[in-house]
Amino acid sequence: MKLLRGLPVLCCVALCAGHASLQQSRAISNEGVFAERLAGVRRCLALHAGDEMEVQAVKQRYGKDSFLVARPAGSPKLVAKAALHNTYEALLRGAGCADAADSSSTPWFVDVGTDDDEVLALASSLGCGVSVLDPELKDVRAVDMTRCMNEEPNRPFLVFQVSATNTTNPESLANMTHSIVFGESSNSTGSDAAVKKALDLVAAAMPAKAALLSKPTMLNNIRRKAEETREKEAAVEQAQQAAAAAEKAAAAAKVAAAEKAAAEEKAKQLAAAAVLENGVMLDTVFTKSGETSASVQVKSASGDSVSVNKISVLKITPRSEPAATVKALQGAKKLLESGRVQCLITEMNFDLNTTESFISHVTDLEKLGFSFAHLGSMDYSELEISSAGQYEVFKTDSKQLQELFETYKRIRSFDERSGFRVYSGSLSLDRKGHYFDYTDLVFACKGSSFPEKLSVLDKGDVRFRNGVWWIERQQKK
Q: Mapping DSSP to helix (H, G, I), strand (E, B) and coil, where does residue 438 land?
């Protein structure tokens, strides 16, 4: 299923993708439904006509529906992912992705740092709205095409090329959603000229009045009184003109001050943005100030607004830097405290500088009623797969994660002193050139139990040997 240059070929490929979908899933059995879906695929493929893309139809593990995934032609095939996808599907189903009564109650799957487009399409096919935040999407065109082929009116699919962190950069927020208009720099020349002109009018009134009063007075009382009346009237008129000029000058000065304040505020914001790292807080995007439990309107990159309330699964697995996961969790504190997030997927990457903070977050979430489980390292070659096709997931808590980290630090210290292995972040390299990624995949759900379909076992025993670690079932005593 390969796309070459030109729309006619793209349409043929879409036909092949649709045909493969029919073969792989009974869900598309009605000819009318198939024709409608095929027309939608043609439209989506035309978004990036000329690009070489591969479109794959994938069937759900525990349902009858299928979904489409677009990948750049020639990209590496995803291998050994079936069990992980089945694990995610069980979690998404149990967290409420299929429970929406209407478009206003759509549950959401929010993915921070996505590295697997198939999970996005899977969540959408299950009934969840999808929101992706990732500054380094491997191929934005492919993600956009996947979005287009799976998006439905009652399950929006939003793609934001931005990182989730612990501060919100106004420029990043503006580029992500809508333009933020700051006050323009003011040119004070016009305002200063207006003030000077008004002051000149006031000053000019004084000598004119003095000249008028210095004229000789007539001995005739009538003429003298008439002259005094005219002088008084002239003085009143001059005073009125002076007052009007002063009022105008004050207004001009007020406008100038407001423009100057706006310019200074803009300069401060620009200066703050310059020192802030690029990114946004999930709290900024998905919560209202003072009303964190209320739904929020989120603007898409195209300017449309969608309502986001319940988040079935929040997945925070960025790999941009060792501290990325902890920063994203810090920026989602209010969202996680709001009660709107049902389940969380994240990672403990054993970074020496941030893992203590990560475990502290786990402790805080336990106090909020979240239960935790973990899978272990995805690099361990003998991970057990259940009869349901999922990885075995073991219950855990902050205490066990702390013990796991302490053991890791002792082993790492010994390896580095002895020269057995070198470490960088979550990776280790032995003398034979074998890499191992220690990162632990962690799940959390609100309440005392996990979704029924998810294969969760009791707390297991952690084992380290020959530079790798894994979890195994506790031995019965």
A: coil
